[in-house]
Structure formats: C-alpha cells, structure tokens
Amino acid sequence: MAKDMTLLWGSGSPPCWRVQIALEEKNLQGYNQKLLSFEKGEHKSKEVMDINPRGQLPAFKHKTYVLNESCAACIYLESQFKSQGNQLIPDCPAEQALMYQRTFESLTFTQKMADVIYYTWKVPEAERHDSAVKRNRETLSAELKLWEGYLQASGSFLAGKNFSLADVIVYPSIAYVFRFGLCEERYPKLAAYYNSLKSRPSIKTTWPRTWLETQGSDMLKDL
Amino acid sequence: MAKDMTLLWGSGSPPCWRVQIALEEKNLQGYNQKLLSFEKGEHKSKEVMDINPRGQLPAFKHKTYVLNESCAACIYLESQFKSQGNQLIPDCPAEQALMYQRTFESLTFTQKMADVIYYTWKVPEAERHDSAVKRNRETLSAELKLWEGYLQASGSFLAGKNFSLADVIVYPSIAYVFRFGLCEERYPKLAAYYNSLKSRPSIKTTWPRTWLETQGSDMLKDL
C-alpha cells in the first residue's frame, strides 16, 4: 500500500493520467488521492499550491519528495520501485534508447496538441489569427503522421516488444486527440494503438471518469 | 574513446551543448562530431535528416541507436555509462526526486525563453502583437524568479550537494539568458551559478566558440 504517496489530480488531464498509469503499473495502489476540478479553479487552491507552486495538476508527493512534473514522477517511480510491478525501462540498450527518445519527443507532440486544443484559452481574443489556427493544425497533423509512422515501424508498443515508460507517457496524449475527434480511419495505426491499450488494466482502471459520462469534442475531426 | 558515437551540433544551441557536457562528464571523448551552421540551414541537410528527420540539432547516435532529444541522450548516456566519469543521477531518493523534477521543469523554462528570444522568428509579422511580447517577457521573468528561488534554496547545484543531470540540462539555458543580456544584479543567484560553473571542465571545454568570438544580445537586459 502506497500510503506514503499523495496525488492531487484532474480528470482527463494527460499529465495526471500518466502518473496514475505509472502507479498502477508499479503496483502502487492505495495512495492518498483527491480528484480536483479545473473548472472550479481548484488547481489554484492552497492545497495544490502547497505542493505545486505553479498551481498545476498533478501535484504529487512521495514521502516529502515533490514530483509535480508528470514525466519526472514516472521515471522516479520506475527507478525507486524497479523490481515491483511491470518493468518500464527496458534493459536492452536499443530499446532503452528508443524509449527515452520517444518519451522526450512526446513533449513536442503534447505542445503542438496544446497549441491547437487550447488556442482560444491561451491566446487573448485580440491576438487570434485564422492563419495561426490553420498553421497550428497543419503542424499537429504533421506531428501525428510522424507518430503514425513510428507505430507502423514499432508494432504494438512505442519502444520495442513490451509496454514501457514511453507508452505510459504518450498514451494519454493519443487518447486525448481521439477524445477531441481525431479520425480513426485517417490515422489507423494510432487508432489501433489507442483501442488495443484501452483494456490494459493500468489504463482501464484509470480511464477518465468524465470521459465515460460526457461526449468528447469534434475539434480535430478534419485533421 | 567513444568512436561508436556521432554528434552533429550547432554552436550556442542549448540542446546541443547539453549533450556535449554530458559526454564530457561521462569521459566519453573522441566521438565523431561535426559542427554545422544554423545560419546556412545545414540543420536541414541530408546528413542531419538521415539521423534526425525533424531536421534539428543535435542529431546524435550511439552505435545504431538514435537519440536526438537532448535530454533523452543525456539520461541514456548516464544509464549506459553509470560507473564511468561523474555520476549524474544521485542514488539518494530525495536528491533523485529533486533532480528529475528540476530536469523536467526546465523544459517549461526553455519554452518560455524561446517564446521571448525567438518571437520574431517564430511568429509571422502579420500575427505579432506588442501585448504578446509584453506577456511573454513577464512570463519569462516570473519563471526566472522561480529558478532564482530554487538556487537560493539548493546552493551551488540544482539538486543537492553534487553536480547532476539537472545541471547538465539546465545550465546551457541559464547561460543562454545571460548571453541575451539578462542582468546579473537582478538575478544574483542565477548569476553566481552561471559564473561559478564556467570553469567546470565539462563546461569550459564545450563553451560555444561563437560566444567567445562575438558579442551577445541585450534583448533581456530590462527583464
């Protein structure tokens, strides 16, 4: 029982979901957790700010060690609980290299996704341009095609024959683009990856409850 | 001799510099390397694209394993050459947690730095706004104050009593903001950190040659 861990999280947030998946993969259940609402601004509450002064979720702590950056938390958990649950960092140098490469490359993917999905939230009305929206969408589409190609080459998982930290970190972003209406027919490898991992216990157990209860958006349907 | 490694790099680029520092720290000298020019567009050359299809530098390879993401390359090198050169990932869980947290947090810092320094390069003229420039600068200033506070708390290094991967990854970005004119008096802890590590062998040896030969910018002097 991971009673010495605390996770404050928001439903549907890829960074929060990553940490939840990693905890499941490492058999670290029973941690203290609290679901907070972005809509109600609870990510700016004192409870969050005490752990994460950036006022973002996740806010995560193991003992007194703070790991709010979701990728940092995932790598740390694997390092500290290496022999527990599923091994997430491959020993094979070739797979390990690919795993780290895809993990860090995914931050570019996430950034490009955010530039499209959060555009009106991030850019004040007076600074918005149709040309920027169009360019951001084209950039995201090109990025998704790269990942489509990666999966074409790698098969079931992103870095080798086993589920790894790269999958823990990238899967929530891929699920997110489908939640926002990405066309499964146009990105068949991404869709196959998305659908095949839905039933993996660590992912199924942590699937965002809000996604089960509400309809997604169709923002990316023409991408 | 690291003859099974190849690094294509550009002078003054923080991501390239990180990999160079990591290689020095791990005593991996003698690798194949080639200095390319961003100005001449050599980062889009076939030689680079063959290793890094994103057309970015660094392009880095160990044997046949490609690690173009600079942070991925640094973590991989530490993992594969753990007992060689300086240990960059602390064993102590508290220091390790802080090291990973700062390492990934630095990607936010780098992004905010890029939003200011590359604004006119990234944003087409018709989409530029003084309000965006002002906001980006304020955001970067707030970010730098966070790091000033981190150094106030941690002392000589970013994550504990020894130089670590967090320093390898963050130092080039901190040097970059000073290269762009950040005021040493206004950010005394960052300045002390910047100056004290200049003489560290891994950093001194890899100091961007272009920086020794040309004047920096004063873009950030009022930040």
TrEMBL record, chains A, B:
InterPro entries: Glutathione-S-Trfase_C-like (IPR010987), Glutathione-S-Trfase_C_sf (IPR036282), Glutathione_S-Trfase (IPR040079), Glutathione_S-Trfase_N (IPR004045), GST_C (IPR004046), Thioredoxin-like_sf (IPR036249)
Top-rank taxon, per record: Eukaryota
Domain GST N-terminal: 3-85
Gene3D superfamilies, sorted: 1.20.1050.10, Glutaredoxin
Signal peptide: none
Domain GST C-terminal stretches: 92-223
UniProt cross-references to PROSITE patterns, sorted A to Z: GST_CTER (PS50405), GST_NTER (PS50404)
Family: Belongs to the GST superfamily.
Protein name: Uncharacterized protein
